[in-house]
Amino acid sequence: MCGRLNVIDDPGVRELCDQLDIALWPAQGQLFSRFIRAAQPVSVVRQIQGKRCMQNAIWWLLLEPTIEGFKPSRFASFNTRFDKLDVPSSAGFHAYRHSRCIIPVKGFGETEYQNGKPVHYYDLEAAPGEALALGGLCREWHHHGTGQHMLSCSVITLPPHPKLVDIHVKSMPLILPQQDDTLSLWLDESVTSTDIFSDLLAPQIPAKLIVTPIDKPASYQPIADPFLVEED
To answer: Gene3D superfamilies, per this entry (predicted)?
Structure first.
């Protein structure tokens, strides 16, 4: 999965937030943007001491302290690969067990590369009136010099799905099902045994996706007709 998210102020995104039973507007203000890049702030849903809330986090799980605060680590960590979740030394090991989050989005973007150069760009969106619940991880940071507290996050990525392999050959984001109790279990901080989530780590598409070839992420102008990818 590439580093861009679509979090527009959309009825589907708002309905998902209502389904999650959270206060829609965090103290910092919910972040809406057609194009959120890796290392930028994004709004995430967490559960803290049994209460759900929305907070803004830096979309880069590993941060480094500076004199004035924090900056994204030199190690890319906006995504956390599924096969690293059970590696004790990995950045997401503890977070997977104790601080999972959901990132409500309208969609996400993918870029395919060959020989280090982009060959095509795609926007993938939920159907009208719907949104996607991306499974993520978050970490809290405290700066001992300034006293600053920061929250960071990442999106869990899975192997490519056969329906999406022509769009992005390496990976796809974890899209959580919304029709059962998955969202509640994912946010439940008392669930620290991750065996219950094993089935989620296989590539799956639990919601319809509208896929549009675009010229480039910054302008997102369609260059061909959109097409529908049906859910599994």
So the answer is: SOS response associated peptidase-like
